[in-house]
From TrEMBL, chains A, B, C, D:
GO terms for molecular function: GTP binding; magnesium ion binding; tRNA guanylyltransferase activity. Keywords: GTP-binding, Magnesium, Metal-binding, Nucleotide-binding, Nucleotidyltransferase, Transferase, tRNA processing. Coiled coil: none annotated. This is tRNA(His) guanylyltransferase.
């Protein structure tokens, strides 16, 4: 019995290799997550459990695929940067898009009970993914700036909106009307004057999103720094969390203030002690500081 | 604060719409499932639990996407046919590929404990997917024939191989050597003479794979046939399960014997009683009978 | 000296094969031919010399590429149908598009002096081309109907417009105003009542465009019909030229009148005497008659 | 009469925009030019008339399309570099490929009689074209190095081969046998010792191919250098033509000798006097000198 008489159907499968030598930006979005978050009673404006679950899934994807050098997540979306020299699956688009989306989904569903122990899944979550190619670093920088600026804009709006609704007693219609046409400054003002909320002191996770990156090849330095206490490490972590004022400055086109020598030194110290592993931070990725300290993201 | 200065990066996202008016064949494969099946101690040569879980996930995908009119699964792969007129996600390739793969994965992981209550997931399963376009029905027929012939060839080999190992006491090396160069007939003979196994009486699920299809618009006929007992339905189901001899005849190029009038009549009767729902069968899809009885698969 | 250190740049060349088993419709348009026709003083509304030169170039392309089974031209554009089984240049899109466009251009420039003996080329003409895939015959029928309907609409407008200008003494602005919102019937009426022009008696080339097709495998019939005079052949040619009234009926959705037995018989007779060669006609390709008589266009 | 019932066929036309921000390398090759050159009795190993006609056509293409910043030709092929920011035809691949190929062909055919006044075209020449995208300058450098190294290798072989045949009395079979396995050095030796030919003194056009580039924005310097005689300009042109020894060194991986200060100074002087126009040179484009002097090729 020969199967070969049918095998010609394979000829319809056309190659879909992506241009070599370009960065792949893989982006993944939740499918109908507005409804999904309602059904599973996500907290408004942000649900830490859901965000941490997203981070967990993203970290699993990065762990499995070493050619992913950076990831950024906000809300129900995550972006992954693959190094431009990657030959993952011979750069076949469908293979990469589907496999990464699948693994993320797998982790999201598998780990759901860890983050939502009292909320069983009502129905199956799913995600869609796509790859966009970028030929130069500057576009990658701008891509991530675009996503983080989006995080800021959305979160400031949502935070103010839900304060008006949950604490201010407005209907959602009223809250939208209150916010129509307001600038960032006015939203900050509403939050502070009416609800006593200093936006810049809210959880950086909400304001900055999640940044996942690798800290590599640092083991040789470990002994040198073994005297640093874990308290210090925690402390330096906060150096990665910056105020939105600087963010707004950056996006408005003004020059970012030069990074103070002390801050950079502290971070470098911390960085050096880290072993090769994936870090999650909620820091600014619009200004140069993050990138200058991690030249490995673009190195081949 | 304006986000618009970065939004130009969207211009790098290129359209990827698939040619209208052509059938989409979406195929999905387990990622490294050889290792996955070893780690989770799948039974050899077939693990019913795993196959039923695959069917479950495929059915969830078909339920969510009405434009899928047929699916076929074997081992760790599943193929889905989308009607040629589908405008799902504007026929965007990455969107369709990633979303369908994601939903399948989601169901597979979510339902794992139902089928493997005593075998916790050791690590995250994932799948890859791709779409192949076919411009004509004949290619679709041959595509599914190709997959089912593959099912038969692999299953006959594996069944004989594992009989030699598990019951015949051969090492895997010896078993491969025993089977080298043998034809179908000889494998049948080994199974029957040495192990008392009549291959054609093994579970049709293993020999034919799983066929998922819709039975639609039959409600108007329901009252007419309400007198048919459920026993009769179960009985007629078996008419869908045929011997591999016919399959081999078909694939060898010889003419399939004409479908007997009685059989066709019985099936039609059963079909008409069914309400709109997704059916799972383990029947021949190489010969005309299956397709002649379901012209709706290709109708628009 | 090794060239191999640079040869890696070939890896950036990605495959661009077109889906097998689908019709290729190659369309070619003059580049800035509005200006080109002005500069070379083409006659308005139609310049026979230019149209015949286009036909000549199209015929050269068909002669060189046997997989082109049909072509249709109007104004400065030409469409070519390649059989769906063609493996020309392994169905590589850029190769086919560029080569066909190049050969057409080559012929157009080379043969220019034959058709414009007194008008030297003022500057270099060029064309652009593209391929559109169609999975079914019905789309091919509709594609050609689309182009021929376009020919009719444009030519009726242009003929009336230039009559108003050249014979009616209107400015071009006035002529556009006169025609604004008019239906076909009114344009016919203007032509007839004001200028004594019966549109349906104008050169079929202008009203129908040019249809190029192959008449094949007829050599065996030649001796049977050798007594037919060339006068008769010319006469039967006119059976291919039909009135626009029927065309308008067809496009308006009404049923085309059945082809009279006599007409078909006459054409068949003529057809049979022809040897394998490329014919140019100015006939209807919207109704069934043309296609019914040339089943070979779609046969493989 | 409505054409709209057919217009849906346009939906099958899919977008084919090329990735923004990447260099387009458009390459064009003669179609079956081996036969074409035989039929039109091109001189062996090189026919100056044919090469100059190719240059002429390439220059016409560059003149028409300002986004082409560099071109390189050898034998029956030509490569064109489009700046990475080009938005020509919205970066639609088929449109660009077909139009550029068409214009080149148009010029080739139109200008044929100027270069071959005594050799009428026997049949229609044609070319095929394609676009390859490159994300970085280094790949562009290597692409052009690849083509020029190819020119050298082919020309050295062909020159020696035809010397053996035309002057050495060998058959073509014998000549191939003589050259089998020989290195560059041995071919140089055969040419010199047996035929008195110093390869490095042959026409640079044959050894280096043709390089077309723009010299822009130099008008402001013109008055300063107006005292330079045309003799000096011709003289400095030769500084662009270098020996193949250096080329071979470069390709073999050894460092190119540093450009002498005098030479660079002389070229700069000449360059500054040039007005904005397309230059044709037969110079090295593998080493840095050419590129260092024309930074505008990569500037946006």
């Amino acid at each position: 019995m020969a199967n070969s008489k049918y095998a010609y159907v394979r000829n319809f499968e056309l190659p879909d290799s992506l241009l070599p030598g370009t960065f792949m930006l893989f982006r993944l979005d939740g499918h109908s997550f507005h409804r999904f978050s309602d059904q599973h009673e996500f907290k408004k404006p942000n649900d830490v459990r859901a965000l941490e679950l997203m981070d967990h899934a993203a970290k699993d994807v990065m762990t499995e695929y070493p050619d992913i050098v950076l990831a950024f997540g906000e809300s129900d979306e995550f972006s992954f940067l693959l190094r431009k020299s990657t030959t993952l699956y011979n750069r076949r688009e469908s293979k990469i898009v589907s496999t990464l989306t699948s693994l993320f989904t797998s982790s999201f569903v598998f780990n759901w009970p860890k983050y939502f122990p009292d909320t069983p899944l009502q129905y199956l979550p799913s995600f869609d993914g796509r790859i966009v190619l970028y030929p130069e670093e500057k576009y990658i920088r701008d891509y991530f700036a675009w996503r983080q600026a989006d995080t800021h804009i959305n979160n400031l709006y949502n935070t103010t909106f839900w304060a008006l609704v949950q604490e201010g007693g407005q209907t959602t219609t009223e809250a939208h009307a209150t916010l129509r046409g307001t600038f960032s400054k006015e939203k900050h003002e509403i939050l502070f004057s009416r609800f006593g909320i200093n936006y810049n002191q809210l959880d950086a996770r909400f304001r900055k999103g999640s940044v996942l990156f690798r800290e590599e090849n640092m083991t040789k330095y470990r002994s040198l720094f073994s005297q640093i206490s874990s308290e210090e490490l925690v402390a330096t972590d906060t150096t990665l969390i910056e105020s939105d004022k600087a963010l707004e400055d950056t996006m408005a086109g003004s020059e970012a203030s030069p990074t103070k020598g002390e801050t950079r030194k502290a971070k470098t110290k911390k960085t050096k002690q880290r072993q090769t592993r994936i870090e999650i931070a909620h820091c600014d990725i619009i200004k140069d500081q993050f990138w200058d300290a991690r030249l490995g993201i673009f190195s081949e």
